[in-house]
Amino acid sequence: MIQSEIKTGFQKAKMLEAARRLFWEKGYNATSMRDIAVSYGCRPANIYNFFSDKEEILFEVLREEMEQIIIPIKHLEEDDGSSPIEQLKFIIQSHLKVTLSYRRSAKLLFDVALDSLSPDKRKTIIDLRDDYDRIIRKVIRRGMDAGYFPEMDVKLAGFMIASMITRTRIWFHPKKGVSVNELADFISKFAFHGLDGSSTGSYEKLLSRTLHTRSGGNKR
User: Fold this and answer.
1) What element of type H or E holds 59?
2) CA-based Rg of the chain, rounded to a whole angstrom?
3) Extended strands (E) in the chain
4) Considering only CA atoms, which of 176, 201, 179, 181 is closest in space to residue 189?
5) CB atoms within 10 A of CB 19
6) CA-CA distance, 72 to 211, in Å (whole number)?
7) φ, ψ for residue 198 (rounded to 5)?
8) Which domains does the chain have, with CATH numbers?
9) I need a surface site. Which of 89, 98, 176, 220 has the fewest CB within 10 A?
10) Residues near 188 by Cβ (< 8 Å), separated by ≥ 6?
């Protein structure tokens, strides 16, 4: 029984992987159930043993993608102990790694794919996206309250940072000479410069202040 469930889960995961790749390459509307079956290596009828229709496959792709983004950062929503600077940097790094992973279906989260879902399924995905927005805004707000960032529109700041991350899927390629970690560091610095409201040395100053605060100040 357990082995059968493992096999079924493995098959579903591989089918979803085939669908992700096709949705990325061809677009959701241009991808058929037959395309997914051929890519996976089975007859089209076999796909229906696991998914009721193409919409369910799309929903599973989007839900898993959002969960991969949210689960690693969920704990930050109520984390008042660690530095907001480190929290925001972690969000950026975690989100970017998912966005630029081999799955690359994050593209679907921000285009017409949501319109292809039924209202109930669309609401589930939007609720997950709202969870992400709420977490990043709380971290930014925390940074403002602690004096790391000046007062600004938290909602717009969160949208701008998320947009910087998601847009990288369009142009990023590891052969361009920038690694994912290097890009995450650059986006973090760029975001901190903007949030700090100054043009030079902002990130380094913020990080220095964070380390100073956590160590209890310099003791002479």
Assistant:
1) helix 54-70
2) 21
3) none
4) 201
5) 25
6) 23
7) -125, 170
8) 1-51 (1.10.10.60), 53-214 (1.10.357.10)
9) 220
10) 88, 89, 92, 93, 203
